[in-house]
Amino acid sequence: MRKPFLVLALISAGVFAGWCGHALTPSALGQPRAVEPRGPLPEWEQVSIRRFKEAAPSVVYITTTEERSRDFFGWDVVEVPSGSGTGFIWDGKGHVVTNYHVIQGATRAFITLSDGTRHEATYAGGSADRDLAVLQLSDPPPRLRPIPIGSSGDLQVGQAVLAIGNPFGLDQTLTTGVVSALGREIQSVSHRRISGVIQTDAAINPGNSGGPLLDSAGRLIGVNAAIQSPSGASAGIGFAVPVDTVNRVVPQLISRGKLDRPNLGFDPVEPRLLERAFGPQKGIMVGRVQPGGPAARGGLKGVASEGRRLLPGDLIQAVNGRSVQDWDSLLDAVEALPLGSSAELEVMRGGRSMKLRVKLEAGGV
What is the pTM of this model? Predict the structure, then answer.
């Protein structure tokens, strides 16, 4: 009863083998397919390629180490990797700009240039408030390529941007996107607000910190600093410190090692105490005025006492026409002005609005 099935199977196998022998020959299976020709790349693709090739030599990979004790007494100290990030060449003298949080707490820093060479770097200066730092190549090679500088004051939402960095240690990575929003605020490592921040949807991931955000002309418009993401990876919301801030802060970090904050010559009343003592107020109230300081010479009056009754000080509401709501926004306004210049303060005193001028001196804290 099984013979017909056996015969049928043998016949089918023979037919299949014959078909394979004729139709699927090694020569037929082993030939690659013909390449479909294409025309030149569209201009928008060529722009991205050109901008990456132009900017990549200015972008560096930063790794840091720190010292840790192996024992309780701290006698046995070892050096271990502590972090990594991105930076870019600021000038031909070997200054490299990055985020402050990239090198915070590090004992040593090493910079890998785009040609693959690795160099040790020293700390030249930094500002935790602005999340910016400068490293100095110990032995800068010749023909460094500083990154071109743009401006951030005239940016518009929707402009194309490019970010170059080392996400997760993958060096020389390009991501693209647009300016998603302007005037954002993020918190620095010192818990001071950084205002005027650029938001972008160009993918920013751990390791991109300190890298350049470029416009379509290949100019620096921001320093990638943070992301907002529940997972810790890119969610299309990245933030960059605007280049106008960078271009003002970095020269001070190079020349003095720190950012000189203007000394206004007074201490503000803490918001919690202000509301408790005088109720809700709009602005920054002058607390203690330093004798002989800029505020005293400018005519500002602080909180005073009359018996057991507290008298409110001047309530600052604007600097050079720019509205201020708290101490951080006041500092942002005056730090944008050169030392030695004067700031016009709009204050409320006893229910009356008035304008006073205060000269900005170095020495703020």
Answer: 0.77
